Amino acid sequence: MIRLEKRPTPSRWWTAATPVLAVLLTMVAGGILFAALGKDPVAAIRIIFWDPLFSAQYASYSRPQLLVKSGPLILIAVGLSFGFRANIWNIGAEGQYIMGALAGAAVALAFHPMEARWLIFPLMVMAGALGGWAWAMIPAILKARFRTNEILVSLLLVYVAERFLAAMALGRMRNPDGGGFPGSRSISGYPSASNPELIAGTGMHWGVVAAFIAVIFAYVLLHRHMMGFHVRLLGQAPRAARFAGVVPGRLIILCMGLAGLLAGLAGMFEVAGPAGRISIDFGSGYGFTAIIVAFLGRLHPIGILLAGLLLGLTYIGGELAQLTLGLPAAAIQAFQGMLLFFLLGLDFLSNYRIRLNRAEAA
Amino acid sequence: MKRRALLSGAALALGLAGAAHADDPTKVGFVYVGPVGDYGWTATHDAARLEVEEHFGDAVETSYVESVAEGADAERVMTQMALQGHDLIFATSFGFGPDANNVAAQFPDVKFEHATGYQQDHENLSLYNARFYEGRAVIGHIAGHMTETNTIGYIASYPIPEVIHGINSAYIHAREVNPDVRFRVIWLFSWFDPSQEADAANALIEQGADVLMQHTDSSAPISIAQDAGIYAFGQASDMSEFGPDAHLTAILDIWAPYYIERVQAVMDGTWEPQDIWHGFAEGMVELSPLNDAIPEDVRASAMELREAIASGEYHPFTGPLNRQDGTPIVGEGEVISDADLLAMDYYVEGITAELPD
User: Fold this and answer.
1) Residue ranges of domains in chain A
2) Residue among A167, A201, A270 minimizing CB distance to B6
3) Residues B276, A222: Cα–Cα separation, whole Å
4) S-S: A18 plus which of A239, A346, B15, B193, CB 3.0-4.6 Å?
């Protein structure tokens, strides 16, 4: 008989070991999937995990790209993790990301072609943060005041933000020199507003810097500050939290606001840097992928940092695998899904103990 | 700046290596905005890629990356292609324009071909596009004849000039044969979204449409039309298998001849940047076999229209044409310029719908 026994406290050893084990299991299961598709599984795994970091031919390019890809994921996921810990489910980071980008771009386009980086860029940062924050305030206030479901409201606001983005790309923000085509003028090409690579060849831009700062900030806040304690308390024991003086409404506003602010910042840094301009399809799903990153990282700032880098690696390696092996994009997505599946599945082991015992005589 | 220097250094090294092995196959990369299985836009490009492979055999090596988002992702994919020694890269979506130009700047030895765009800042980047509106003129003509409710439903993607002049072209030629015809347009703000396309098709049918047209890439509207017992037109590829009775014809995108020609040019060292816009005449736009449901006389007049456009005898945007608000576009017998077509952001007179802001 196999028997499950709940551990009194989660096993520390398993908590540390499961991410590694999950990656290994993903490699094995993914390898079987790739083999079933008629591709060399060892080569595929090597291309996905090894080549982007160490290939002599293109690692010097793809390594910095890892930061470019992971930066916004980490920044958004850190923001989301606060709410998730307190059982506040902001699913609409994608919308907040888009609104932050639009607000930042609006500032840049309003000042164009004035040259005053000291003024314009900081204003853009503030506008980006504010844009994302304001968009997150809609579900937050609705929930705090009227107890609406923040999952639905924040998710639906993503679609509103996408429509708004399309309207902006086709209307107010359209490049007047673009011959009637949609999309704004280049923001990354406008020196006072651009978010360039800070050190050549590293992929480091202000958004990546912000992501690292957010990780440290979140760590301190969660583990050394009263607010972090309240967040965790509200998530684990809402009734106890109330006795401890936590005002849920205030915490909802705070957590949602923080998530919106960081998502907005991520969008603003993206539009001024790697994406470079407002276009109809600017929102490319970072806000949704960041939810996966937050959970892969177990809502812990350091975990999120590692998870963001790992997921970024599978994206970049996945593209390489498509290019060199002709693997379909869907196989890569399935592979990424397996990673999450194994990680969450194995979580079980840190909370439960599996016991084998012989059937006892009656 | 330094990274650029580094990258072009790498490109140069690869270029030299390529020259040293003259027998090496020509490497051609394709960047797709959708999945290769969309049965629409991306599927047609991938079909052309396979024809390139078939035509050149071992002399080429093709690769592709599908479902690539525009912006940083597209730029990275193209850069990786260039770093891996691709000689020619087809960026097959409008939105890849700025990205293709950025990468082209860093790899002067790699040739780039950008579909349906306008930005051409570098000597190693070409633009190519198809005159889909020519096909839309013919399906508009057929739709005008086939509708009994005088209501045609149009599932549109983004309000950009290419889509808007497609609607106008279809409307002008539907009205020509049926003055009472009305167009209902639903904008999806997506190129490929089967569930939204199906919803839009149902909504249009509820509003009385008995012929559907689409400027989105999935086959969902064809299936809906089949179930509802009405007619529809396929997009980009022959979608008749999804609705054998509903599917009147499809506007086909035929990229293979152009792709083969450009790959050959790279092999011969005769590749030059250009900006082409091909239609029926060059074979880049074609119609799939007409459904038997179309009466003989309509079939004949539709083919006549197709021939007139192909021969250059007739242009689908021939005056007199007015904008929706009545201001003239072109006068009697005049023909609209390509530049005006490519910037068209208004409906023609008679369409009662309104463009989204």
Assistant:
1) 40-326
2) A201
3) 59
4) A346
Closest-CA residue of chain B to A185 = B98
pLDDT given for residue A180 in this prediction: 66
* pLDDT, tens digit, 9 for 90 and up, residues B56-102: 999 999 999 999 988 889 999 999 999 999 999 999 998 899 999 99
CA distance A239 to chain B (A): 42
Fold of B132-251+288-342: Rossmann fold (3.40.50)
The predicted complex's ipTM stands at 0.83
pLDDT tens digits along A282-337: 888 899 999 989 988 888 999 999 999 999 999 999 999 998 898 999 999 999 88
Domain range list for chain B: 2-130, 132-251+288-342
Q: Which residues in chain B have Cβ-Cβ distances shorter than 8 Å to A65?
A: 76
**Inter-chain touch A162–B357, beta carbons under 8 Å:** no
Task: Spell out which residues of chain A touch residue B81, defining contact as CB-CB under 8 Å.
Answer: 323
B354 touches A: beta carbon within 8 Å: no
- In three-state form (DSSP H/G/I as H, E/B as E, the rest C), the secondary structure along chain A is CEEEEECCCCCHHHHHHHHHHHHHHHHHHHHHHHHHCCCCHHHHHHHHHCHHHHCCCCHHHHHHHHHHHHHHHHHHHHHHHHHHHCCCCCCCHHHHHHHHHHHHHHHHHHHCCCCCHHHHHHHHHHHHHHHHHHHHHHHHHHHHHHCCCHHHHHHHHHHHHHHHHHHHHHCCCCCCCCCCCCCCCCCCCCCCCCCCCCCCCCCCCHHHHHHHHHHHHHHHHHHHCHHHHHHHHHHHCHHHHHHCCCCHHHHHHHHHHHHHHHHHHHHHHHHHCCCCCCCCCCCCCHHHHHHHHHHHCCCCHHHHHHHHHHHHHHHHHHHHHHHHHCCCHHHHHHHHHHHHHHHHHHHHHHHEEEEECCCCCC
Q: Which CATH architecture has domain A40-326?
A: Orthogonal Bundle (1.10)
Q: What is B2-130's CATH topology?
A: Rossmann fold (3.40.50)
Stretch B148-168: mean pLDDT = 94
The answer to whether the CB atoms of A167 and B357 lie below 8 A apart is: yes
Widest Cα–Cα separation across chain B: 67
* Rounded-to-integer distance, Cα B41 and Cα B30, Å: 13
Query: Could you give the percent of chain B with pLDDT greater than 70?
Result: 93
User: How far is A300 from B47, CA to CA, in rounded Å?
Assistant: 46
- pLDDT score of B2: 41
DSSP code at position B1: -
- Write the CA distances from A167 to A291, B15, B283, integer angstroms: 27, 43, 35
- Residue B186 is predicted with a pLDDT of 95
pTM (2 d.p.):
0.85
pLDDT of residue A358: 63
Q: Chain A closest CA to B177's CA: distance in Å?
A: 31
Q: What is the pLDDT of residues B285-335, one digit of tens each?
A: 999 999 999 999 999 999 999 999 999 999 999 989 999 999 999 999 999
Residue B3 contacts A, CB cutoff 8 Å: yes
Q: Give the pair of three-digit tokens for residue B9.
A: 């250094």
Interface test with B, best of A311, A322, A327, A336 (most B CBs within 10 A): A322
Q: Indicate the average pLDDT of chain A.
A: 89
Question: pLDDT tens digit string along A43-75?
Answer: 999 999 999 999 887 788 889 999 999 999 999
